From TrEMBL:
Enzyme class: transferase
InterPro entries, per the entry: HATPase_C_sf, HATPase_dom, His_kinase_dom, HisK_dim/P_dom, HisK_dim/P_sf, Sig_transdc_His_kin-like_C, TCS_sensor_his_kinase
Protein name: histidine kinase
Enzyme Commission (EC) number: 2.7.13.3
Residue intervals passing through the bilayer: 17-40, 151-170
Location(s), subcellular: Membrane
Species for this entry: Deinococcus metallilatus
Keywords: Kinase, Membrane, Phosphoprotein, Transferase, Transmembrane, Transmembrane helix
One Pfam family named in its UniProt record: HATPase_c
Catalytic activity entry: ATP + protein L-histidine = ADP + protein N-phospho-L-histidine
PANTHER family xref list: SENSOR HISTIDINE KINASE TRCS, SENSOR HISTIDINE KINASE YKOH
Amino acid sequence: MRSARVAWRHSLRFRLALVYTLVALALISMIGLGVMTLLLRQMDSQFQTRLNERADTLAEAFLGGGQNLGKSPGGAGTYTMIIDEKGQVLAATPSLRQYEKAPFPFAGQAEVQLNGSPARTATRKLGDFGTLWMALPEDALVDARQSATRALLLALLVTPVLMLIAGWWVGRRALADLGAAADLADRIDPTRSVATLPLPAREDEVHRLLAALNRLLVRIEAVQAREKQLLGQIVHELGAPLTVLKASLTRASERTHDPEVMRAALVADELTFTAQDLMQLARGHLEMKVAWHFIPAMALRGRLDRLVPGTGFAGDWGGMLLCDPDRLTQALRNLLANARRAAGPDGTVTLSLTETSDHVTFTVRDSGPGLPAELGERIFEPFISGSGSSGLGLSVARQIARLHGGALTAGNAAEGGAEFVLTLPGAALGDDEEEAAPAEAAPSA
């Protein structure tokens, strides 16, 4: 499947899942940070309120009854000291007794460290007695801040992974119809048929896209049908005059041996084959039929020698060939004509035949400049040419080779020049085919 060949980072569902994850991560980060900030501020405000309430309670208790500071209404875990007007500590809770009768060490500090723990302070005036200093440990508040921070960081680490997995799965389900349609479209061969793509049950954006593609395919098929019909009519109208012109020029050249007439006969011959190539293109694969015959290789060689004069032949031409003689002649003639055009009038063109029990191989070599490297396999596309021709010959030749169950490849020979290799299945037949082949080949034999 094509989707399996596409890199995961280039797939649409991965990009959608990634964008969805990044957007969600940004939203979660902002919302989580805002909620955490609001909660911490509320906790801080509540802590400050509790600190002030305890400070007020202690001040009132001291002024009202002069209770001992260690047993004051401030409760356990509260640090208190009384400082006189000169900044000396007059009294302190038991955990701060080391500061009594000494200068007050925390003047102007809103937060201090007491016994290894952070504490927040508050002061209250005690009339003529001096100042009440109080500190409340912030351990619970610090723990709450750390817990909230860890929770937010954990959410920011785990949530994107889970959301990316979920987005990938959801995207895969949502785009399954589009992926299946892409695989089907990848297998459509416009030269054979333009099949429409199946539509999903849900009428969503994917449904709209595939429906639009189907309408486009229908229009393409209609245009192709009109083009083929028009091309067939043009070729049909040209065929008869070209045939008469070719025959007339051939007879005239045989009588007069005039070089100009002979050159005109070759041009008429070239136009006739170009018309045949156009007809082949107009008919396409569906209408092409192969009429199998068992013929001597020398018969094929004689045809090609007359059609492309100056061709050199090599290899063993004494065997028999199982093929459609007309179509194989057309394919090889196209290859030889291109080679002759590339080699020029002073160059050489050679057609070699090698045969094994499995394959029959025709190799066309020329002494020209070789094939342009930038064309590659595009050299076999219709109307693509590296030698100034119509660009149909190589496309038709490959089509004929495939109709025979063979192949046509192109390259440059090691010694220079272009090299085309047309390979056909060998004439060796299996048990079932040996019984059927003679019956088919008998008329031509």
